[in-house]
Amino acid sequence: MKEVKESRDQQLTVALRIRPISMVELEEGATLIAHKVDEQVVVLMDPMEDPEDILRANRSREKSYVFDVAFDFTATQEMVYRATTKGLIEGVISGYNATVFAYGPTGCGKTYTMLGTDHEPGIYARTLHDLFRAIEETSDDMEYEVSMSYLEIYNEMIRDLLNPSLGFLELREDAKGVIQVAGITEVSTINAKEVMQLLLKGNKQRMQEPTAANQTSSRSHAVLQVTVRQKSRIKNIMQEVRVGRLFMIDLAGSERASQTQNRGQRMKEGAHINRSLLALGNCINALSDKGAPKYVNYRDSKLTRLLKDSLGGNSRTVMIAHISPASSAFEESRSTLTYADRAKSIKTTVKRNLLNVSYHIAQYTSIISDLRSEIQRLKCKIDSQGATRPARGESSTRGCLCLGPSPRLWLPVILGQHERLDAAGGQRGGCRAQLGPQRKSRGGLRGHV
Ligand SMILES: Nc1ncnc2c1ncn2[C@@H]1O[C@H](COP(=O)(O)OP(=O)(O)OP(=O)(O)O)[C@@H](O)[C@H]1O
């Protein structure tokens, strides 16, 4: 197996979403201080600044930030998905890695963006739906295998959300430097609905507790990984396999203990969540530093080790930062906007993951068996399209060649107006095909697969 490399630098895409102001914030007398000015610009006003203060009269009370795309309370889930994630799908099914992660303080809409609700599904459901549709659309030429895993990092420990009884799992780095979770459950899936069911089941296992800032606060970082393997249906002794990995991550909220009034276990969780997020912030700082290349300490937390490729390696990465528009959230909003702004200058190096698999002679039997299944699949497709199959011994302008043992497999061939193909035999152990004289004289038959 050989890995083929072709790489390209790519800037992190950073989106900013301002959620609607909540009833609680309004009841507490908060005012709106975060506004989307245009498709890319967001303005944050400092609620503490006094417009009457003559010493600061000429200073602006507001700071503006430019992102790749900005959303406010008017944005629908579909708009957010289209502008941030939809464009990654084509790459993932053809061997590129991609990451989408939701970042921001607690209660600002990360889970809403990623998971959404039954009526307003989020990025997970929309991405999976389009991913399987893209696979379906190209499945005449390409063969796919899709698998998924779903984990959470809770108190700096990794739990398998598809099989929590496995206990805590460890991170390992393979020979190529790719971070793997040892022993994680990888489920092969065939459609978006199945993945969503597994995801919802896994989500029920996720650590979630009410805090003062959010009734259903996610206390852990949740990571959904979907792996797509693509290979051509045309068999060859050298087979190219493209492996694309898509990470979709709902981070736990960054929070101040005072705001969430956390004590005991919640306080400890907060410390661990903040340790991971602090490490993430440090990595973002180091990676976005335009000066001399800095050492990037991914090893400081499980989250940053897992996100190593997504942040500074081989991945097309989108960060969706979230803030509240309320004046009471000013400090959190300002620090989120600062990190998101820095993250814009992070560059990743994107390359297609190609594996060249050369087959050993002993594997030919399995290739032949694959080919037979493929012929069977095509036959079913032709049948379902209403194509008429010739009876045995009949001639046809569109003939079928019978191959192999029962159940008989039919390989459609393109024949000229007067060309004849008689499919003879069909007995166990192989059946013989007899070609009409004109066909033979042309030196062979063209299989149309
Ligand atoms: N864009 C939005 N439109 C409507 N409601 C929203 C939006 N964003 C967030 N909300 C609502 O705000 C509340 C908090 O959102 P959510 O749970 O997604 O926050 P979070 O950032 O994931 O918080 P935590 O980090 O604590 O898990 C939820 O009730 C959610 O439905």
TrEMBL record:
Its main location: other. Residues 11-346 form the Kinesin motor domain. Residues 424-449 are annotated as: Disordered. ATP binds at residues 104-111. Pfam families: Kinesin (PF00225). Residues 439-449 have a biased composition (Basic residues). It comes from the Eukaryota. It is found in: Cell projection, Cilium; Cytoplasm, Cytoskeleton. GO terms for biological process: microtubule-based movement. SUPFAM superfamilies: P-loop containing nucleoside triphosphate hydrolases. One of its GO terms (molecular function) is microtubule binding. InterPro entries: Kinesin-like_fam, Kinesin_motor_CS, Kinesin_motor_dom, Kinesin_motor_dom_sf, P-loop_NTPase. Signal peptide: none annotated. This is Kinesin-like protein. It comes from Chrysemys picta bellii.
